[in-house]
Amino acid sequence: MRIAQIAPLYEAVPPKLYGGTERVVSFLTEELVALGHDVTLFASGDSVTRAELDPVWPQALRLCPSIRDQLVPNLLLLEAVRRRADEFDVMHFHMDYLPFSLFSRQPTPFLTTLHGRLDLPELHPMFRAFPDVPLVSISDSQRRPLPDANYMATVYHGLPAGLLMPVDSIKPEYLAFLGRISPEKGPDAAIRIARACGIPLKIAAKVDTADRGYFETVIRPMLADGGVELVGEISDAGKSAFLSGAVALLMPIAWPEPFGLVMIEAMACGTPVIAFNRGSVPEIIDDEVTGFIVDNELEAIAAVSELGRLSRRKVRAVFAARFTARRMAQDYVAIYRKVALRAAALNSGLLEAAD
């Protein structure tokens, strides 16, 4: 198939450090190429891919401090895709609702994977205005605020099978927190849990500008009491060692996590996950197999003492069975074909035949 992958411009594809959506777009794009599809990636010019790259903006917006209006590059991105739309069998957007209006007015089939939270009331009128746009959710729990939207399927994220691996030579000795320092991710809870267990905590995370106040007023004072090492952002190259050295990844989230890529990154390294029972967690973690699903900090503390019952080899095996990029790409190809078939049927007045 001739497939367009359209990424947001905030990060490069793949991102240099943190960036969940762009990382998933990269994994998907490279697997589609490996499967023999003709793929064009619309992304920032500092992206790296084996697909054809259409560099709509020279550099990822996060790395362009001179850009004050980030909507302009993204609108130019949409226009660049529209001008090439007839070159593709299907277009796959990763920009949430931004393509709905423009691409509902042209014939090439498209779909949108929703990567963010849907529980914001201001989003609902947009989905009501475009009820026929084909959507993909990244967990079933993500759909709850908008249960009647036009979902084609849920497709769980995946990682390349060999990207992150257990490092058997590293002895697990600490608890880990990975991702982003923000209130909804719960790093303050992770610190309290680790200290209650008497186990060191390593935090590999970035601090966005929007979360700087939280970091300075809540997290930085907690660091002063010791037992916590702030590693900073790490790339994929450093994650295998970081996660293999952890007895568990702590994920004490305080929001409805749509997916949580860090969970499968830990699983790829054989590292169990202790996560609060919110959002996608019960869909991703097999309780008492790949980790423990808990409701509060006290239960998380108790779960740490039970980690010895889990097999790290089994954790890795579950990752390999459920969360590879190859499986993700194959799931999407099935959806692309369905969307293309329905579009062809609509264009020919034979929709009932496609159903």
Tell me briefly what this model is.
This protein is α/β, with parallel strands linked by helices and 355 residues long. It contains 13 helices and 13 strands. Helix 3 links the parallel strand 4 and strand 5.
Give a structural overview.
- The chain is an alpha/beta fold and 355 residues long.
- The chain has 13 helices and 13 strands.
- The strands form 2 sheets. A 7-stranded parallel beta sheet has the order 3-2-1-4-5-6-7. It has a 6-stranded parallel beta sheet with strand order 10-9-8-11-12-13, sandwiched between helices.
- Helix 1 crosses helix 12 (325-348) and helix 5 (187-197) crosses helix 10 (297-304).
- The longest helix has 24 residues, at 325-348.
- 43% of the residues are buried.
What key attributes describe this structure?
7-stranded parallel sheet; single chain; alpha/beta; 6-stranded parallel sheet; 13 helices; 355 residues
Mean pLDDT: 94
Range of strand content: 15-25%
Characterize the main sheet.
Answer: 7 strands, parallel
Sheet with most strands: strand arrangement? 3-2-1-4-5-6-7
Radius of gyration: 21 Å
Give the low-confidence spans.
Answer: none
**What is the CA-CA span between the terminal residues?**
21 Å
Give the number of DSSP strands: 13
What string gives the helices and strands in order? EHEEHEHEHEEEHEHEHEHEHEHHHH
Specify the structural class: alpha/beta
> Globular, elongated, flat, extended or rod-shaped: what is the shape?
globular
Helix content: 25-40%
Question: What is the count of DSSP helices, taking H or I runs of 4+ residues?
Answer: 13
